[in-house]
Amino acid sequence: MDLMVGMAVGLFLCAVAGTLMLSQWREHRHLLAETLLQQELRNAIALMRHEVHRSGADPAAHELMPERGRLPSRPAEAPRLQLLRGGAPIPDESAGDGLRLVYVRAEAGEARRRIERGFRLQGTQLQYLLEHSWQPWSDSNTVRFIRMEVRLAGSEGSLPDACPCAGSPREVRSCDTRLQAQTLHVLLVGQSRLDPHTVRSISSSIHVRNQRLEWTAASC
């Protein structure tokens, strides 16, 4: 009788210990899945922010503005960021699932290079445009990207500077120059491969450089 009671107590303790170990293992797996998922989402946003900040960059950007004292003329437009949906360009007012951008790189002793970069959601995989080829950016064994949304929000303001007329330096006349600024709003939603119940999202607003400049020439 005592032996049966001892066996029952031992089995009970083994069951309790097994339940605790299983609970801790599940909690550890959930924590690992959430950590890896959030890390992938943050890294994706950080890379997008880095590339978007370089969008439209050009070492010869000063040539877009006329010299002071000359009649203003419409400057050449810098390359702009392009939204995509299903891989095709869409208007800035629409919401897309990808983007492409261009910037110019010119290093000492080297010719000017036109660099293209981009991001898009292909199925459940986030892809990165690198050297004219779309490459998988994320580890498909870690995360499934279930949603990517990009939107451009614009604002417009007048530049406070005035331009002196070429023939009369003392006369100052407004050039009616307006700067159209843009902000890229990005939303990423991911699901962990380790734990399908773990779904997280991250959003960010990224200021776009080299905005469109509307220049209306004013005669003196």
- Structural category: alpha+beta
Q: Please list the strands of the largest sheet in the order they lie side by side.
A: 2-1-3-4-5-6
Q: Give the distance, in angstroms, between the N- and C-terminal Cα atoms.
A: 113 Å
Shape: elongated
- Percent helix: 10-25%
H/E order of the elements? Answer: HEEEEEEEEEEE
Tell me about the biggest sheet? 6 strands, antiparallel
Proportion of beta-strand residues: 35-45%
Segments where pLDDT lies below 50 for 5+ residues?
164-173
User: Could you say how many structural domains there are in total?
Assistant: 1
What count of helical segments does DSSP give?
1
Q: Could you tell me the mean pLDDT?
A: 76
Rounded radius of gyration (Å): 28 Å
Number of strands: 11
Brief synopsis:
This protein is an alpha+beta fold and 220 residues long. 24% of the residues lie in helices and 40% in strands. It has one domain (36-215).
Question: Could you name the key traits of this structure?
Answer:
220 residues, six-stranded antiparallel sheet
Structural write-up:
- This protein is of the alpha+beta class.
- It is built from one helix and eleven strands.
- The strands form three sheets. A six-stranded antiparallel beta sheet has the order 2-1-3-4-5-6, covered by helices on one side.
- A hairpin with a 7-residue loop joins strand 8 (163-164) and strand 9 (172-173).
- The longest helix is centred in the N-terminal third of the chain and has 53 residues, at 2-54.
